[in-house]
Write a structure and sequence with these properties.
Two copies of one chain form a homodimer. Chain A is mostly helical. Chain A is built from seven helices and two strands. At the A-B interface, helix 1 and helix 6 of A face helix 1 and helix 6 of B. The first copy, chain A, binds a DNA duplex (30 and 30 nucleotides) through helix 3.
DNA sequence: TCCTAAAAAGACCTAAATAGTCTACTTATG
DNA sequence: CATAAGTAGACTATTTAGGTCTTTTTAGGA
């Protein structure tokens, strides 16, 4: 239950690179892996859920590779994180109702739910197009 | 590198209960553990870093126990999370400068730094007094 | 048509973090 | 001085994260 693991971090770097290179041609993972210093076999495992989420399209065979399935403006960082971390919520107790028997009386649950919302709102507000653009200071 | 583990969740429940019961009398962990359904031995291990962080005070001997070291209004959820998770940042690559050799060129780093800030600002904005009060909807 | 480059799929492995337990010891109050 | 409490540290189990290996499938080009 880690919020941001290397899955999200590697995956986002892959997608930002694809966004930068445009959607015209398919790009093979090996070249991305080399440029980004990410193990190719590991990166290839991240591609599967990204395809399932409708973020990537793949083309097999020679001259094959990956390209974005949608425009960079239409893919948010939240889409990527959810596809790769495989859950919508960062906490068991806020995820499914009934996960915690105390949820009715628990005074801390709203705090974690609120945190969840803050995180999701932030990640939803950044698109791949934003990320691919010039270095932006999101901390302001 | 998990953002919110049972350490933070259990620890916050302990502190909220102490905040609710006031600072007048020391409260023993055993009774908190029973009411909150938390293994007492595990809870007792969380007390140590909370003491070190100046959040809890302990009193030994018969009629001993724990009480808050500061007023509930002056303890934020961020204080608690940092004391229990033992780190200030949720990501290696944003934590220490130089942790990632690519940080100069990395287009995704500012996104994670911004996330870090958003989370810290949120947690810093909630005090134990807030949490102990009536159920608040922090998601609004 | 065969060769090669690329994705697909799934088993497998290792290390680290998390959650929790056990035991022995120390301290303070009634 | 008995007892209820905290202190300290080793120990264990489970899960997750990170990464690797192998085989198969697909498509383009000489």
């Amino acid at each position: 239950m880690s919020l941001i693991t290397t899955r999200s971090r590697y995956g986002l770097r892959l997608l930002v690179e694809l966004a930068e290179r445009g959607m015209a041609q398919a790009i093979d993972l090996g070249s991305v892996a080399r440029r980004q210093d990410i193990p190719e076999l590991y990166l290839s495992k991240l591609a599967t859920p990204l395809k399932a989420a409708g973020i990537l399209r793949s083309e097999r065979g020679a001259k094959g590779g990956y390209r974005l399935a949608r425009r960079p403006e239409d893919i948010t960082v939240l889409d990527v994180v959810e596809a790769l971390e495989g859950r919508s919520s960062l906490l068991e107790c806020t995820g499914e109702p009934g996960a915690c028997v105390r949820s009715g009386e628990c005074k801390t649950l709203p705090i974690w739910s609120g945190l969840d919302k803050v995180i999701q709102d932030y990640l939803r507000g950044i698109s791949l197009a934003d990320a691919a653009g010039a270095a932006i200071d999101y901390t302001i």
